[in-house]
Amino acid sequence: xxxxxxxxxxxxxxxxxxxxxxxxxxxxxxxxxxxxxxxxxxxxxxxxxxxxxxxxxxxxxxxxxxxxxxxxxxxxxxxxxxxxxxxxxxxxxxxxxxxxxxxxxxxxxxxxxxxxxxxxxxxxxxxxxxxxxxxxxxxxxxxxxxxxxxxxxxxxxxxxxxxxxxxxxxxxxxxxxxxxxxxxxxxxxxxxxxxxxxxxxxxxxxxxxxxxxxxxxxxxxxxxxxxxxxxxxxxxxxxxxxxxxxxxxxxxxxxxxxxxxxxxxxxxxxxxxxxxxxxxxxxxxxxxxxxxxxxxxxxxxxxxxxxxxxxxxxxxxxxxxxxxxxxxxxxxxxxxxxxxxxxxxxxxxxxxxxxxxxxxxxxxxxxxxxxxxxxxxxxxxxxxxxxxxxxxxxxxxxxxxxxxxxxxxxxxxxxxxxxxxxxxxxxxxxxxxxx
Length: 435
Prior knowledge:
Layout: H1 6-15, E1 21-25, H2 32-43, E2 46-51, H3 68-78, E3 89-94, H4 100-112, E4 116-121, E5 139-143, H5 149-155, H6 160-172, H7 178-194, H8 198-207, H9 210-231, H10 237-245, H11 247-252, H12 270-282, E6 286-292, E7 303-312, H13 315-320, H14 324-332, H15 337-354, E8 359-363, E9 370-377, E10 380-386, H16 394-402, E11 409-413, E12 418-419, E13 424-428
Parallel strand pairs: 1-4, 1-5, 2-3, 3-4, 6-8, 10-11, 11-13
Antiparallel strand pairs: 6-7, 8-9, 9-10, 12-13
């Protein structure tokens, strides 16, 4: 059983006085249903799960009066073997996007306050087929993404003490013991070849076979393509699929990783395709990193509209877009050229995204200097430069010399922890999750 950080977050929600109904959102197959049902079984006397895709007739419960007493009566008639008692029962409304009335009911569960209700589903950011919206102000939210590297280490049997010592090395800017460092780099490359989708990780844990995990990755990719076909409106289906499937080529086949519409079709323009990119990000299928004109707080004030990089929401999807040989090269550390640079940039984008960062970058087209990532924390901007090997960080060094507002920056490289000049800290790739 894969341990997930969301279990502690769900416990925190349950312990909160006056808690609201909870919506857990995230991409398909990231483990939302499993995590919530596990929580319900472990923390409540009863769990009632209604999956509106599996049992669409259950939507009838929410088509009458939406008073809590009326809904509870209807639930008890449909599920007579359950008590559905305040404080004892967790009501889990899964795939709730299929039942607009159930979405509306969340407000009334919150206002009543007697029952704990969690809702979840795929495509919660897509509104094309949903006439009702989520009741603003009456809900708490949690986001679940694929496994991060720390969760992967838990699955590999790395103990809490060892993982705590790794974080301590990051915080103290101290090198990791060489033998541990080499082991972690090897584990990180395996993780990058697998990605963080739970079924992929579990398959690898059960079989220790990357090829078996590869088959799961490809099935998941097909599932995502099905979701695009199923949920996108008629004007977006083909365009959104074309944008999504172009991600690997945009990142791995060229030096400049800026998303280019001309690679989608001859003469491709933002006017035609930007709405499709927006659809992919709201559907949690992809994520963007937007370029900025200055490395200054607040980065959103300096965004250059329409200039961005596009990444898959999880590495599992990106790797499924390429031949199995790419995974083998990652594990064996034999990548080269633009592919190596693009992949390592994607690895760090994945880590920063799963840590909750909104991603930005900066690129000077005349000097070709660029900062791979800019993130914000505690009111300050932190540059992050990614190196697939151990080469110098000319762009980062120039920024640190010339901008007194920037007092901390990270070089993420195939190297151990170390402190350089001008506040630049070198960390190994696997520590990007701690930025």
